[in-house]
Amino acid sequence: MKPARSKKKVDHPHSWEELANGQWVSESIQTRLDEWCPKFFGYHMLKLGGLSCELTSCNCNIQHQVNLDSKNPLHNVIADRYELPFLEKSFDAVVMSHQLEYAEDPHRLLREVDRVMIDDGYLIITGFNPMSFTGLASLMPWRKNNFPWSGRMFTPNRIKDWLGVLNYQVVYADTYALFPMKRYRTMWTWLESSIGDWASPMGSLYFIVARKRTYPLKPIKPHWRLKKKLTPASVSYRTADKKQSS
């Protein structure tokens, strides 16, 4: 297994228009995001990257939403992804749409996001699955310099392992889009549904929802104590006194 950190600088997309079938990919992610947004509560939400900025979250209970990117016109904050200009535990939810694939150091990016995430906050991660038709297409030489194949794709299980190291609990994970073809989409959707769930690990896209869990470093001692074992009481008899009294 190759290390996640890349030595060369990886360019990342700032809009869905830069990706092949980007509009269809964003619509599929938007459908799943609409189901989860009403479940989020808090004060602040962070959308990291231009792709995340273009996802709408109007039905979310979190009103203040920060869009962070350098080129997307929907941004309201421009900053380095690896050095977020926010205090620790500032956001109740973070959306990372296809950010780890185009990060030189995805571990560092996740740690920085974890720093600004509150306890029990929600993290949404989307990406391309390398064990799919989209991932296999990256082996073609003429596609290596084009989006989305120019990035580094990671399997959903590997993303889950990284989240587990940071004490995140994966509450939902879905791998879908077995046939990522926009043309004749109705036919491909029907064919994917008829195949069943056994082919879902080969889906081109994954949608992961994780929740940050914080455990105390020092175990809390119970207030109750174990009762001592009952022992027979020792009684001393003075036989000499008994004879004198009699």
Automatic annotation (TrEMBL):
Keywords: Methyltransferase, Transferase. Residues 74-125 form the Methyltransferase type domain. The keyword Flavoprotein does not apply. The keyword Transferase applies. One of its GO terms (biological process) is methylation. It holds the Pfam family Methyltransf_11. GO terms for molecular function: S-adenosylmethionine-dependent methyltransferase activity. This is SAM-dependent methyltransferase. It comes from Vibrio mediterranei.
